Hints:
Chain A has 422 residues and is α/β, with parallel strands linked by helices. Chain A has helices at residues 2-25, 30-46, 48-64, 69-75, 79-94, 133-144, 158-175, 190-196, 212-221, 244-256, 272-288, 297-302, 311-314, 331-341, 354-363, 380-383; strands spanning 102-107, 113-120, 123-127, 148-152, 182-184, 205-208, 234-238, 265-271, 292-295, 307-308, 322-328, 346-350, 368-373, 391-392, 400-401, 408-419. The first copy, chain A, has 2 domains: 2-227 and 402-414, Aldehyde Dehydrogenase, Chain A, domain 1 (3-Layer(aba) Sandwich), CATH 3.40.605; 234-383, 3-Layer(aba) Sandwich (Aldehyde Dehydrogenase, Chain A, domain 2), CATH 3.40.309.10.
Amino acid sequence: MKESKDLKTEVWKMARKAKEASCLLARFSTDTKNAALREMAEGLERARDLLIEENGKDLAAGEKAGLSLPMMDRLRLTPALIRGMADGLREVTHLPDPVGEVVKMWRRPNGLMVGRMRIPIGVIGIIYESRPNVTADAAGLCLKSGNCVILRGGSEAAHSNHAIAQILQNALVETGIPADAIQVLPHPGREAMREMLQLEDSIDLVIPRGGEELIRFVTTHSKIPVIKHYKGICHIFVDEDADLEMAARICLNAKVQRPGVCNAMETLLVHEKVAERFLPRIAELLTEAGVELRGCDRTRRILSHVGEATEKDWSEEYLDLILSIRVVDGIEEAMSHIESYGSLHTEAIVTSDYSNAQRFLREVNSSCVLVNASTRFNDGFELGLGSEIGISTSKLHAFGPMGLEELTTTKFIVYGEGQIRN
Amino acid sequence: MKESKDLKTEVWKMARKAKEASCLLARFSTDTKNAALREMAEGLERARDLLIEENGKDLAAGEKAGLSLPMMDRLRLTPALIRGMADGLREVTHLPDPVGEVVKMWRRPNGLMVGRMRIPIGVIGIIYESRPNVTADAAGLCLKSGNCVILRGGSEAAHSNHAIAQILQNALVETGIPADAIQVLPHPGREAMREMLQLEDSIDLVIPRGGEELIRFVTTHSKIPVIKHYKGICHIFVDEDADLEMAARICLNAKVQRPGVCNAMETLLVHEKVAERFLPRIAELLTEAGVELRGCDRTRRILSHVGEATEKDWSEEYLDLILSIRVVDGIEEAMSHIESYGSLHTEAIVTSDYSNAQRFLREVNSSCVLVNASTRFNDGFELGLGSEIGISTSKLHAFGPMGLEELTTTKFIVYGEGQIRN
Lengths: 422, 422
């Protein structure tokens, strides 16, 4: 009982310190924030041996706890990954600072000049799993956009995350920025996270990135607004009039270029009129690339060696070299399949028909909808946002990749000359 | 037990119907939506006698229940108010339709054309108290922005709200739009609202408008994202270099033009160097207008007849002809008072000093910050948004007045020519 009260107080204090720091952080110049980011990058590179040592403790514990190979892989810090973190921080210095930008300004009939100015959101909680490099990436983007961050990584990476955060905090202090701008939740267990999710007066936004179970936990317990970075059940619809060579190239890329990520294709929808020509060709390419295919009945009439896709397959995010395939009557059935089973993440159409292209773009309301391009482009860097903290599948505030601008909000500013209201 | 299960099912079904209607509603043309809005306006005017009759039932019940006079006043529908609702709906037809607007489009080095297209949020729950005219106003704005709406007015206005909604639904059906696009929560009690707040899979956003207790209830119980329309403890800081005639005009307007609304001034901060000149003059004007003044010690040394402002006064939203006054050392102390006691709603500075004006605009992070203008301008219509569904004091998604654009979100659209990712 006493322990849980202490935990509550500890988390509350941490959040208050972040809130206080956030008022100061909003006012630092771009130059100072960039200097801190460079210092953070150098600090990480200088501390390479220490980081690998601390990461070793997590790896040893992970092995003892019997973590899966992919999880151990995500947990591991290598010299290349440490250089990657440092380079990532340096790249953020080159992105434009969104804070203070006036996105629009207009004049009212009474002479008032009204504008919308970007300001930081305030204090952001980032909740993630496994990969310790997220600690540096997320902290860098939050710092540049003037936000304080509370990081809550997975308990399996606790040593690594604390070591990284310590280096980042030292860099802040070197540059004259309050160390409280970047904090790690002291206890990696769920209890501290639950306490954190109550603190709506100190924390402005929570971004959970991870599996379904983690995200459900966060939305159920949070009083703070949540932007979910949820799963991607991404579709490609190959239309009757598609250039089938282009379709094959795009589908292959969307499935195999990096199958373990949220913008990889999970279900292929093929127009019945081209199924007989297209399916054998794409099946050959995918099978060569090691992809297991699961098809609907009509698919299996054409590809007899393919396994059956059950109802469960249509709503599964494989994150693996598996693809479900369905033959559809046309764009209507394709869009209705997407509406039933999609996760609002990424969908593409391959077509040379003008009105189907326009219709698909207009009517499919996923965070990114593409014509004649791979689903793998739904990514902050690829779409031109410079960088991203993740891909939101919540419609509020930010839908799709969240870059620096999406880590800000706007306030109205008004220049008057004594106007009063009638 | 059975009853509560029935209620749960009823609310769930209503939300599902709204979700289904929302996919259709997103695709209706601006012309059709405008035709429905005009039909809604005419329907309300035609049904004037019925509406006044139904409102009479609410008024009779309210009187029996001993509602306060201001509450009875807010509850009452008059022929003028009914005409006002109808005119409001007609005005919405003249506002630009945000749905389908591409707010930006750019070209990537690989030739991809990337844009952001506005789409409706989906299903919006609006929770409000007393005023039955909100039913028509909110429904009109949601319809024009392509959103389905679930309205939950106060139980004291249940007859009026149901009668209004019935007329609006008839107008939808006349125009070929599904009636489920506008629904009223069947039972006005808290239990049905609590069920509704669980339905994160069907409802995309909840907007509570009302008192502190209602808003706390909603944020505590909601699994759905919430945009709060919360209280306004608005400040005006009269700086050392202010034009004191202008300052008097602005302060008088901000306090007395409509004292019962959220953008009225509640606390006046005066620079010590002008306090002796300014306070007697403004006190005279405000007292003439019937305002009760409560001052800090330094204020009361100048205005001896003024009552004492206690710690509680600084965080009180009077919504009445009461004003608290504090003399401050300068802009630093003024901003730090606002940071401690403000509600992030609206703050103004009156000054002729260039750098203080710029600094106040930049550093005060309320939803609307003004120089040399009345706080009463923080309003969707006055700032040029055309109309508003309320004023958000949540930083996420929309901060300040929410017009039609703020009732949409954006998705990324991508025009490709066969691009794949390397």
